[in-house]
Design a protein that fits this description.
Elements (H helix, E strand, L loop, with lengths): L2 H5 L16 E3 L16 E3 L6 H15 L4 H4 L11 H20 L10 H11 L12 H13 L23 H5 L14 H38 L10 H13 L4 E2 L3 H9 L13 H9 L5 H6 L1 H11 L1 E2 L8 E3 L6 E3 L6 H23 L3 H4 L7 E6 L2 E10 L8 E7 L1 H14 L15 H13 L1 H5 L12 H14 L8 H17 L4 H29 L9 H17 L10 H12 L2 E3 L4 E3 L7 H6 L20 E2 L5 H16 L6 H33 L1
Parallel strand pairs: 3-4
Antiparallel strand pairs: 1-2, 5-6, 7-8, 8-9, 10-11, 11-12
Helix pairs in contact: 2-4, 4-6, 8-14, 8-16, 9-11, 9-13, 14-16, 14-17, 14-19, 19-21, 20-21, 21-23, 22-23, 25-26
Length: about 700
């Protein structure tokens, strides 16, 4: 049987078509395969199962999962009706291997010999992580091993070897029950900590915007040299070409151009093959000289013919690595001191720089767009689009949605900010990827491995010379970066002043992308942001209630209404008479405050409890009291009846007052009108600070009494 024909999948012309009885199923020519599906996922080698008899069983089982509509499979009462995704074929085989080889090690030769004790010992044997010695696998990771054991029983009727009819592994318990896995709709992905995210963004943006343009030019020259080398003719150097080479050597000597030094690897290779370490020509990168002057491959016999000219050149001008010479000066990241963007180097280091900046572009795109790994790897060169519109410029990225879509994915468009557009443009420039070719998929390393390699370069001599901030260790991959972005937008929509515009633009771009394609993956990201925002607003409301219970009252024009809400919650809790085993916990408080939390909008220095548009000062000033959300950009929380201030806002107002005092009131050239306006701003800020301090000090006095 043709496996792919039975599965209804196509292959590229001329590619292998695996047959059912083959020990190796080679799907490397699988058409429409997503970039995230590496080659190792496309080759299924059943010989990894020790027992040849069970290799056949594994093929039968996988064939049934791949082609559920096959007449022999469709009649099975408990078989799966949805085809197993090609993305899962390889992992399914590996889990079968673990189970079958465990049985072989236990002395079994037939599945009919399997008893529950074999299942239990198998679960115990796979419960420890293979990558991290001494660490237990999570319950969720264990479930896949359990399913491999249990699912074989669903296909007993068509397998050439099966469990005893009365035997069912772990009886009727589900894989989740056996592993102790509790499913949750909560997103458990941890965000990237600020201590890592801050230097990561600073370094990557610097590499893309400052170093990238210069590297793109040098990398283009390197690609041209590689092309000349690949197309150059071999064989001995004709006598007719010798004058041109002598002229090239003499011209370089006269102009004081240092001789190109061979790479450390090339030098070691020459010494191992018998070259003299004291011979100056051993260190000479001879090949590029012959290639540039004569268009031929340079050989050692030709090198000896020009020894006098070469030794004179080297003696007068010395050596220098061939790439990155006379580099343009750029400002260091840390102190703006001007330094060369690179020191003279060899081609392997230049390629490392290219890989570093490509990784920087990959991580910036992931951080500022929220795209998944599978979507990032589908980005092609030229997929970043700039659209000029009457209401401003729009930046788009064309990629493919893979998760939750039919095999091969569906084309989708992401609306992004300019920083993402520039990052993709720079990645295309430094790699020289032709339009239509995948931009990031030529690097087979997982996202975190890319980060580790980039961190090594940034933390090494090259990064220190450019003043880059050392990067710490930590989990950096698109899933964590997506979660970080969602939480940043949800928890700090107008928060840290340094990120205020950036986050606002990302939020706007994401919303526009959702509006353009409601079924696209920016809609899923926006839903994730909304869920995180709802959870954060509930947390902030509970925090304000806890402060109220401790005697620290909110301040501001809206404090009276908020305190009244909290008193209503107190009354609801007081009416509840807990029994001997009843506890009034945080969950119950959250439920009572959830309605209030839905009205919360977080400002830079206040909370806005937006319950009545007619009372919102910002909407009154804008002349639009019918809006469904406040205009926080017009917020004057000192005068709005729906705004409150809390201890967490003190620092913002204190900093604002200090800036006003130093920058404006401390300026002797300020006009009387401007000084009066600045004094009013300063007085308002200090009044809010004093109100917050007074609320806190009253609680301290109450505690002392």
């Amino acid at each position: 049987m043709d496996v792919l024909a039975a599965a209804g999948l196509a292959v590229e012309p001329g590619s292998p078509r695996p047959r059912f009885d083959q020990t190796v199923w080679d799907f490397t020519g699988l058409a429409h395969a997503p970039a995230i599906m590496g080659t190792h996922h496309k080759v299924l080698d059943f010989s990894i199962i020790t027992n040849p008899h069970w290799q056949s069983v594994a093929r039968e089982y996988l064939m049934a999962r791949i082609a559920p509509l096959h007449p022999a499979v469709a009649v099975l009462p408990r078989a799966f009706r949805t085809p197993l995704s090609p993305m899962s074929w390889s992992s399914e085989l590996k889990h079968l291997r673990d189970w079958f080889n465990h049985l072989t090690d236990s002395g079994l030769t037939r599945l009919g010999q399997v008893a529950q004790e074999h299942c239990d010992t198998f679960l115990e044997s796979v419960s420890m992580s293979r990558n991290t010695p001494g660490q237990m696998l999570t319950p969720g990771a264990l479930t896949v091993f359990i399913r491999a054991v249990k699912y074989l029983e669903l296909y007993s009727e068509i397998l050439s070897d099966a469990y005893q009819p009365e035997f069912r592994p772990w009886a009727n318990r589900s894989a989740d029950e056996i592993a102790g896995y509790q499913r949750s709709t909560m997103n458990r992905t941890l965000p990237v900590p600020d201590t890592l995210l801050g230097p990561l963004l600073a370094n990557t943006r610097y590499l893309i915007d400052v170093i990238g343009p210069h590297l793109a030019i040098e990398a283009q020259h390197l690609r041209e040299a590689d092309h000349r080398q690949a197309t150059a003719q071999g064989g001995p150097l004709p006598a007719s070409k010798r004058p041109a080479i002598r002229d090239a050597i003499e011209r370089r000597r006269v102009h004081g151009v240092p001789a190109p030094q061979i790479s450390p690897t090339g030098f070691t290779t020459r010494v191992r093959s018998g070259w003299d370490t004291n011979d100056p020509l051993t260190r000479l990168a001879w090949h590029p000289i012959v290639l540039a002057a004569a268009g031929k491959q340079g050989r050692r016999i030709d090198l000896e013919r020009f020894r006098p000219e070469l030794e004179r050149w080297i003696g007068e001008c010395g050596f220098e690595l061939p790439w990155g010479r006379n580099a343009t000066l750029v400002p260091r990241l840390d102190n703006n001191e001007m330094v060369p963007w690179t020191l003279p180097t060899h081609r392997s280091h230049l390629r490392k720089m290219t890989s570093t900046i490509t990784t920087a572009a990959f991580l910036v795109t992931a951080t500022l767009s929220g795209m998944r790994s599978s979507e990032l790897l589908e980005i092609e060169a030229g997929a970043h689009r700039l659209e000029e519109r009457p209401n401003g410029t729009r930046y788009r990225v064309i990629s493919r949605r893979i998760k939750g879509e039919p095999f091969g994915g569906v084309e989708d468009s992401w609306v992004v900010i300019e920083a993402v557009y520039r990052a993709l443009e720079r990645a295309q420039d430094v790699t020289g990827t032709p339009p239509g070719q995948l931009l990031f998929a030529n690097n087979p390393n997982p996202a975190h491995s890319r980060y580790v390699r980039m961190r090594e370069w940034i933390n090494g001599p090259s990064g220190r010379r450019l003043g880059l901030e050392p990067l710490p260790e930590g989990p950096v991959h698109p899933r964590a970066l997506r979660r970080t972005l969602a939480l940043m937008i949800a928890q700090r929509p107008h928060g840290l002043m340094a990120a205020k515009i950036q986050l606002k633009h990302i939020s706007t771009a994401t919303t526009e992308g959702y509006a353009a394609r409601p079924g696209g993956h920016q809609a899923a990201f926006l839903a994730e942001v909304s869920a995180a925002e709802e959870a954060e607003h509930t947390r902030l409301t509970v925090e304000a209630y806890d402060q109220y219970r401790q005697g620290v009252m909110p301040t501001g024009q809206g404090a009276r209404d908020l305190i009244a809400t909290f008193q209503t919650v107190d009354q609801a809790l007081d009416r509840h008479e807990p029994g001997p085993v009843t506890v009034i916990d945080d969950r119950r408080v959250e439920r009572l405050l959830k309605a209030k939390a839905k009205n919360l909008h977080v400002g830079v220095g206040n909370y806005c409890w937006f319950t009545d548009p007619r009372k919102a000062l910002c909407l009154t000033l804008a002349g639009n009291t019918e809006a469904t959300e406040p205009l926080l950009g017009l917020c004057d929380s000192a005068r709005c009846s729906q705004a409150t201030h809390h201890p967490r806002h003190r620092e913002v107002w204190a900093d604002h007052a200090e800036q006003t005092r130093v920058v404006f009131l401390g300026n002797p050239r300020l006009s009387k009108l401007e000084r009066a306006r600045a004094q009013e701003t300063y007085d308002r800020s200090m009044r809010i600070v004093n109100e917050i301090d007074t609320a806190a000090s009253e609680q301290e006095e109450s505690d002392e009494q």
